[in-house]
Amino acid sequence: MASDAQSGGNTLKLWLAWGFVGIPLTWGVLQTLINALKLFQ
Amino acid sequence: MSFLSKDRTIAPPGYSRRLIPPAALCVHLCIGQAYAFSVFNLPLSKLIGITQSAPDDWKLTDIGWIFSLGIFFLGASAALLGRWVEEGGPRRAMFTAALCWSGGFVISAIGVYIHNIWVIYFGYGIVGGFGLGIGYISPVSTLIKWFPDRPGMATGMAIIGFGGGAFIASPLSVWLMSNFSTAKHVGVAETFIALGVIYGCFMMVGATIVRSPPPGWKPEGWTAPVQSQKLITTQNVFVYDALKTPQFWLIWWVLCLNVTAGIGVLGQASAMSQEMFPGKVTAVAAAGFVGLMSLFNMGGRFFWASMSDLMGRKNTYFVFFVLGTILYATVPYTGSIGSVVLFVCAYAIIFSMYGGGFATVPAYLRDMFGTRYVGAIHGMLLTAWSMAGIFGPVLVNYIREYNIEHGVAKAQAYNATMYVMAVLLVMGFICNYLVKAVDKRHYMTQDRADALGAAE
C-alpha cells in the first residue's frame, strides 16, 4: 500500500512538473509555428 | 543555508529521475529569453520620444551591447564558476542563477527608469550574464549522473529549453509591454520587473525540485561498463587537467566551428532569404522563415543529442560536418534556380545541426573526461560559443559587404559566405577526426579523488 501511495505521488509530481514546463513551452512553440506558417502563405 | 547544501539535494528513496529534466527546463526556459532580447531593441530606443527616437534616446548600436555583454559573461562565468557549480551541487547553482537572472532584470528596470544605459549594461549584461552562465551549466552534470544510460538525450532535453525559451519570452514580452505602455511611456521598465519576478519564481521551482542521485546509484537493470570503451571512459579527469589535453581543445574547435557556421547565418536569416529570393520572399514570409529555423534549432537539440546515444558522439559530429558542408555548398545553387523550398529545407537541416551541436557536446565531454567534472569542463568549453558569437556574424556581414562593394548583385552576395562556412565545417571535420581517447596519465588517481572528495 505504501509503495502504491508513493507511486501515485510520484505520478502526480511528474504530471505537475512536466505540465509546469510543458504548457508554456507548447504555447510558445504554437505561437512560433503560427508565425512560421506565414512563409507558406 | 542548509536548503542549498549539496547533502540536502540527495534524492530520497523512490525519487523519480524523470523529475530532473523538468527541473532543468525550469532554468533553461527562463535563461533562453536571451535569444529574444531583440524585442526590446526598438522600445529601448524610444524611451523619451515614445513614438519615435528623440535626440537623447539611446542608439541601436548602444542597445546592441546589452545582448553582447550578456553572451560574453555567459561564457566567462561558465568558465570561471564551473568548478564552484560542480562542487556545490545543482540546487545552490540554480538558486544563484535565479537570483542573478531575475536581479539583472530588476537592475535593468532601474536603468530604464533613470535612463542610464550603464545600469542596464551592469544589470542585464553582467549580473544577468552570470545568471546565464551559471544557469546554463547548472543541470548538465546532474542530468548526466541521473541518465548514464542516455546522457545525450538527457542533456538534449535541458538544452532544448534554451532554444525554446525565446518562443515564450518573445510573445510574453510583447504582450506585457502592450499592457504596461501608455501614451507617456513604453512600459519597458514594468515589463523588466514582471519578467524578473516571473523568471525568479519559475527558476526557484527548478531549484526546489532538483535532486542529485545518491552515491553509487544506477538505473534499474542497467549495468555500468567496467572497462572503458574506445571513446567512452569510465575514469574521471580533473577539471584543470582536462585543459592540458588535446581532446579538450579539439572539441573546443569542433564546437566553435559548428557554432560559427550557424550563428553567422542565424542573425542574417531574414535579410538573406529576402535578398536571395527578391519578390518571392516578403518581409512577413522572412519572419516566418526565421521562426521556422528557430523551431528546427530547438528540435535538433533533442533529436541529434538523442541520436548521439545510438550513433556515438564522434559520428554525430561527423554527420554535422559532412552534411553541413554539402548543404552550405548547395545553398547558392538553390538561389540560382530560385527554389525557396530547397533553400528552406537546406537551412532547416543546417539549423537542426546547429542546435544539435550545443546539445551533444556535454555528452561528448562526459565520454572523454568522465562524469565527475563534466559540468565544470563544459563551462570552460562554452568560451568557444562566446568566440563563435563574435566571429560568425562578423564573417557573414563583412563578406557580404565586400561582395556588394565589388559589384556583386545582392542575390549572389551570400554565395561566397556559404562556401566559407562549408570550409569552416571541413576544418571542424578534421578536428573531430583527430579526437582520440584521453591518455591514461590524465585520469584522476584514487588518492586525488579521495582528497578532492574530502575538500568538497
Strand content of chain A is under 5%
- N-to-C CA distance of chain A: 57 Å
CATH class of the largest domain in chain B: Mainly Alpha
Q: Between the first and last Cα atoms of chain B, what is the distance in angstroms?
A: 16 Å
Number of strands of chain B: 0
Largest beta sheet of chain B, briefly? none
Helix content of chain B: over 70%
Q: Sum up the overall morphology of chain B in one term.
A: globular
| Apparent shape of chain A | rod-shaped
Series of secondary-structure elements of chain B, N-terminal to C-terminal:
HHHHHHHHHHHHHHHHHH
Radius of gyration of chain B: 22 Å
Low-confidence stretches of chain A at least 5 residues in length (pLDDT < 50)?
Answer: none
- Overall mean confidence score, pLDDT of chain A: 83
What is the β-strand count of chain A?
0
Instruction: Compute the number of helices of chain B.
Output: 18
What's the CATH topology name of the largest domain in chain B? Growth Hormone, Chain: A
* Uncertain spans of chain B: none
Strand content of chain B: under 5%
